[in-house]
Hints:
By secondary structure, this protein is of the alpha/beta class. The protein contains 13 helices and twelve strands. β8, α11 and β9 form a beta-alpha-beta unit. The C terminus is likely disordered. It binds guanosine-5'-monophosphate and manganese (II) ion (MN). Manganese (II) ion binds next to loops.
Amino acid sequence: MSQVSQRVKMDKLIDSEKAKELRGLIEESERIVLTCHVRPDGDAIGSTLGLWHLLRTMGKDACVVVPDKAPASLSFLPGFKEIAVYTCHASFCTKTVEEADLIICCDFNTPSRQDSLAPLIQGAHCRKVLVDHHQEPDCFADLMISYPDMSSTCELVFRLIAAMGLYGDVSLDCATCLLAGIITDTRNFTVNCKHYDLYEILMRLLEKGVDKERIVKEALNTRSYNSLKLEAYALSEKLETFPAHKCALITLSKEELDRFHYERGDSEGLVNRPLEVKGMVYSIFMREDPDCVKVSARSCNNFPVSEICKDLYGGGGHLQAAGGEFYGTLEDCRRLLIDSFDKYDVYLTKGNNQHRK
Ligand code: 5GP
Ligand code: MN
């Protein structure tokens, strides 16, 4: 198929003026930094590394700078070892960001999602571009490319590449990273696939030779023994259900995490499991981290867990996948949710389409 017909097919959701502007910015920049949110996930790493491969193919001096370490489950991604981690190499990251002539911010909608890296990125004098799929972004970049309807930032990046006429520059490595982000954010095409032509994107990426089964195995279905035991413990001992509110809750204290030698990424996916219980509409997971209680939320039926995370835990995200942070004890965090159930019952009402898209 010719590049022109691929363009016609894949770029139809993208504002062509924005794609043109982004291409212009890339062409006139030599040193480009790609960055994402703290506790990066498959979509954050997939989108930054995917663009990194694209830019290198185009002959640019590009660097991925992330706030903190990415989980080991993503280490199979090509280029992973080249990622500069701010909490590990602050001076290298500072120099790289200060020397950049373009920064592309991927998969986050507000500077605070970058934690300690935020002042460096916000203080940089070069132009900035936002490429993201979260709701209600802060206007902190010169070029805002925000599409909350997309399954993932990687879906958006692929469409942007097509709209910029750069599909020919997508290497196998670039395609692998982009598909990893789509697969992790959609849990292998089971949630958030709003656009039917997402499957056409899958086809285009497979055409590049991507090993989809390997991505699913490495990014979704591989874990440590301790992580599996932690999940088993959480489900058998810590799962609370509140049938009247169609809510399931799991809390894990620092002591419990220590007991299972918790490492970053070990509780990935746990929050989804209670939604397997018939009748459950939303699931909340609270983990006692060293600095705060990290809250993760998932839902079905378009129940807006992003509202709960925004109202109660200073966070946000998507309607059906959101998160936040609580500064206080784990029990206070749990109590706050339980005391607020009544307020959110309105969204359970059958036929309530207020949040349907
Ligand atoms: P997860 O539960 O996998 O950590 O995050 C689910 C979704 O919620 C992601 O889209 C993520 O960007 C968003 N999210 C997670 N934690 C926070 C947070 O602390 N603040 C905001 N604004 N969004 C979050
Ligand atoms: Mn994402």
